[in-house]
Queue: 2 jobs
Job 1
Amino acid sequence: MKYVIIGNSAAAVGCIEGIRKNDQSGEILLISDEKHATYSRPLISYWLKGKVVDKNMYYRPEDFYEKNGVKTMLGVKVTGLDAKKKTLTLSDGSKVDYENLLVGTGSRPFVPPIEGVNECKNAVTFLNWDSAIQLKSMINENSRVIVLGAGLIGLKVAEGLAGHVGTLTVVEMASHLMPSVLDDKGAAILEKHITKCGVNFIFGDSAAKAGTNELTLSSGKKLPFDVLVVAAGVRPNVELVKEAGGKVGRGIVTDDEMRTTLDGVYAAGDCVEAVDTVTGDRHIMALLPNAYMQGEAAGINMAGGKADTPKVMPMNAIGFFGLPLVSAGSYDGEEFVEEGEESYKKLVFRDNKLLGYILISDVDRAGIYTALIREKIDLKGVDIALLKKQPQLMLFGKSDRKRILAGGGIAQ
Amino acid sequence: MKKVYAIEEYCLACHLCEYYCGFSHSGESSIVKAYKKGAPQARIQVEEGSEVNFALNCRHCDNPICVKSCITGALTRDEDGVIRVNQEKCVGCWTCVMSCPYGAVVRGHGDKSVALKCDLCTESGDTPACVQGCPNRALVFEDRGDAK
């Protein structure tokens, strides 16, 4: 069997580890347009800050490819996919055959249509290690930096830059930070904390025109800058599959086994849309744990095994300037909220199940909440008062608890 | 593989397992020295209920969601089946805390704000310190077959 993997991040690594569970000898070729050995994308802001050094950026040990019998072609882009002939065309003009293919092409930064932004030499995006290296080379302790977008990437880049630059302003179109993850109360707590750490925010406004050193906002307000970081979201890299005739919605469409609609072609990670295990809706859940689990399932399946369908849902474990935030699930239900000065707890219930949560500050043992959501546990036999107090295994009834303590999992 | 199991009917909630665990991972030669420097954090946690109590540490799952979710590669399931955290690689993002269905990964406090978890005291090569220190045999170290 010959496996070809496009991409070199979590989905690709999951796929390799999945294949090797069932097939020790099949040929694996990995092709990536990045020259680095597999590294952790979420660490680029830590690297920018100086908290993680080069050697700790790598997602797997140096001998990972060798140990798993993987040939690599790094710095090479796949430009075409012929699903009938089962061949790929590469940027160097060569062709590669496959029997099973994983498309783990990830996503790319979305740059909104801001006048002048494409011509602006000091405007950058922030998604991979090379973009972090570029940004680091552009800043000094006096730099005036504007970040467009107060989502996960925008805030992480702000944290990475804080203390290394002169001024730091984040411009966000929505009325509060992390609009896709947090409600206004949770966002307010986080905003207060991040502001104390030297980051300024402008909400309800957006960039209209980028000059050489001046940004004009939609409101007419003008802001001087030395470096502009565009962190306005990402778009999935679906083109290879789309042009080959594969079905694409918001992302590449896959079934429960991570197969695309093309024979022998699987997809995983930030480029796919998947079924949210909580809501049943199909959307893109671009998160490293999901990418790994989808990649692993694809690998197991393409090597002739039968993987459980990855149970994916929106989740975030992220901290800013020492204040941790964990969230998971969906938020359309009955709320239980506890607010503190620098802490927040929101639990959302529906149909006698836990549907979602947001925790700021005290995130200990949050995985118990996550498991209740992921496994859709009926709360009939559960002590709700204990559940609301804190995540704990004592909330389960005796027989469930015995099974769980023995390592039998939360699922009923 | 052999793992640590709690017998809730026997647990007195004395928390000695936590003290022995903290000491065992403190790198100090005596428990007195270890606690003089401030309480070392335990990787096992006692839950106290109205009727029963029990201690809980990592289940060393065969199919560990924490390892799959780890963003840095700091968490690994090693050849001996033990799940370990490389503290040099961990950045304390708490994705493992969000993922572990048992709530068995502990957030490290202080300067080194990284994930802490049970390693079955494999460095000492002995019966885990929590089991040795339990005065009422509410913790056992035995092979019961696979965990999920």
Job 2
Amino acid sequence: MKRNGKIRLIKDGKRLDGRKFDELRRIEMKVGVLKRATGSAYVEWGKNKVLAGVYGPRELHPKYLRDPTKALLRCIYNLAPFSVEERKRPGPDRRSIEISKVTTEALNSVVLVERYPNTAIDVFIEILQADAGTRCAGINAAALALADAGIPMRDLVTACAVGKVDGEIVLDLMKEEDNYGECDMPVAITPRKKEVVLLQMDGKLTRDEFKRAYELAIDGAMRICEIQKNALLSSINVDVKGV
Amino acid sequence: MLRIKNNEFVIPGQLIGSRIICDTNCFYENGKVYSAIQGIARVIGNRVIIIPSSGTYVPKEGDIVIGVVKNIMSRNWVIDINSPYTCILKGEEVARDPLNEDIRKYFVVGDIISGKISRVDEVNNSTISGPRKLENGIVIEVNPKRVPRVVGKKRSMLNLIKEKTKSRILVGQNGRIWINDGNIELTIMAIKRIEKEAQTKGLTDRIAKMLEENYNKN
Amino acid sequence: MDIEAYLRRDYIKNLVNQGKRLDGRKFDEFRKIEIENNYVGEKACGSSLINLGNTMVLVGISLDVGEPYPDSPESGVMTTSAELRPLASPYFEAGPPGEEAIEVARVVDRGIRESGAINLEKLFIEENKVWIVFIDIHILDHDGNLIDASGIAAISALLNTKIPKYEDGSVIYGEYSGSLPVTEVPIPCTFAKINDKMLIDPTLDEEYAMDSRLTITTTDTINAMQKGGVGSLSESEVYNAVDMAFEKAKDVRKLL
């Protein structure tokens, strides 16, 4: 993440894309978008386009990975080569592997894996178009896809990023803010108890700034949770005119 | 104390109430009951059942299922029942002398069979009994959680379809449905539509209408 | 074999003997094709999302500047790759492309390359610098006929691809200097042989029931062919398929 004081990210109290400091980008979510996957969800967040698919619980191979006390929940985050301006070589890079790990851990906090011993629950997050905040969009899509698949969970998981830009704490960083800002902090919570299941940060924050950023992230996440809930609710209102 | 209404759509983590009896689609935390899945909550006295929108099939004793023989091992058949757990059809269920016979004369890999789940162990592995080979016809798959809707209360929906299409229909609790004879296309169309619109109101009337219209076409 | 292959194989074969298909199509009919171009319009130089029945494929085109091949120093370069993303099917695993993905990529590539669809001569920039066109096929939902879905989406994406600006030795992404020069529209057409009948655009169930498969990509000439599957084809089956491929390609071309 570059720090470049020459680029002004905030002008006249507004961000480069005109948003207020605590304003989210446009978000749309939909579930049940894939035919073969057991559960699926699609999230458009700003310019991000993210697809998540879930298979499971299903038989786990190889056998030595089976855990007789619970299901093995695995989540893989993948950027499509054309999802970014400068083509990304196909295959997992270190960044994708790290994101896959922290996402798996976040989801593992809520999925009731003890109910499905010896099985696998696989979550696949595909970033089709990337524009800052993909890991948060991915987690939100993954949580919806798990719910769509009927996999029992203690709660949903909702993610949102905050950052510091030109000295100001702002919600939901866009690309330039992510590249040239002073801090980037993605957060994922379980909305019921507001407990943190994912927390990453890079940059420079005082303790006071961190407190403000954290509160803003929780506030943003709770708003996003409503969008998730509506997406689930919409899935039962099916068009009934003909097959 | 109940925190939701009858027929309310619930999501994972939603509070159902306290001092309520709830089914396996819930979990308990600090004396309160929460929904673990998304679905429709049905309230019966101080009991709550959640009708899931989707989910995997976990075998239960007594379930009729439709399986595919996927392997033969140690004088037993390993059956795929559309579940993450192993299901075995024991050689002795079918053969009189499984140790000395080639049991392949009864069932081979690829055979489609119906049967009843006879036993389920602590990790959901099961055995199947009363196997019957299903020949001809077609097996379609639906979301296992929609099977009750396909059958209907007291088999009303299933009988409605059978009456109009004259098809023989065997519904497996594991989401597999075998259809033979009659107007197979119309049967498939009706079942697929029920699966899609399972959680809407007035479905029975719409299906009856659709069957009537297509029945008259032929 | 995938277990679900057994469930409908015999029924589909019986239907074919009666001249019918499970979804009611005629033997020479494609499924409904829906194409959304510039799906990744904010980042990729070109892109196209296709729904061929229930098969969904996203193809993205990326451009970068690189070195030409030594035997064609004034020609641009094109390269095609495909990934069967694990969310597309319970049988796809995460990992590097296996033989199925590689076959899809190479057959799609052949149709585009051999027809001269991309005018590679026009992609020369200066000495030792040409445009490289990356065609990336991302399979998202598998219900059969991945080759045709990928090939149609690929050429549709190419037809809508813009070339980024190139200034002072760097590519300026987000700003464009013109459209990719595409002069041909190759369309693949895949047949599944079931009980000696040739069916166009097989669904996944039909692929499980088929003996062999033949893909023919055409413009006004045949540009690529690929026989797949275990089983044989007779001479007349091949000739008839070729004739039909030309005809069906024309119909599909109208949609782009």
